[in-house]
């Protein structure tokens, strides 16, 4: 499997700004989880996979309206451990989809 067609490559560089302090930790976990996955055939399939992995790692769907506390992402500080669904919907997933389109 070529590194450039491995989904983890989409996560090589994080976004310029994160939502909450747990988001970078989730980004790295998603990258690790997708390290063995090739690019799906369509962007819709990519989105479905990203939403599924998010749900598995966070415990709730990305459509949950409130920030989610994830204990393993808590390392001290005010918003430590919190993941922002809004960030993933508005920034994280669109960035990954854009990188997918650029690479496809």
Task: Report on the architecture of this protein.
By secondary structure, this protein is mainly α. It is built from three helices and two strands; from the N terminus they run ααββα. The chain has helices spanning 23-33, 43-58, 85-103; strands at residues 68-69, 82-83. Strands 1-2 form a two-stranded antiparallel ribbon. The longest helix is centred in the C-terminal third of the chain and has 19 residues, at 85-103. It is globular, with a radius of gyration of 13 Å. The mean pLDDT is 92.
Radius of gyration: 13 Å
Largest sheet: 2 strands, antiparallel
User: How do the SSEs run, as a string of H and E?
Assistant: HHEEH
Please give the alpha-carbon distance between the first and last residues: 15 Å
Draw up the topology in text:
Blueprint: H1 23-33, H2 43-58, E1 68-69, E2 82-83, H3 85-103
Helix pairs in contact: 1-2, 2-3
């Amino acid at each position: 499997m070529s590194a450039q067609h491995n989904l983890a490559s989409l996560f090589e560089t994080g976004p310029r700004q994160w939502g909450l302090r747990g988001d970078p930790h989730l980004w790295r976990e998603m990258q690790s989880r997708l390290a063995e996955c090739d690019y799906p055939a369509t962007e819709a399939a990519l989105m479905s996979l990203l939403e599924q992995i998010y749900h598995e790692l966070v415990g709730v769907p990305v459509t949950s309206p409130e920030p989610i506390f994830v204990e393993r992402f808590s390392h001290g500080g005010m918003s430590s451990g919190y993941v922002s669904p809004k960030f993933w919907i508005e920034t994280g997933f669109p960035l990954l989809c854009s990188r997918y389109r650029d690479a496809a």
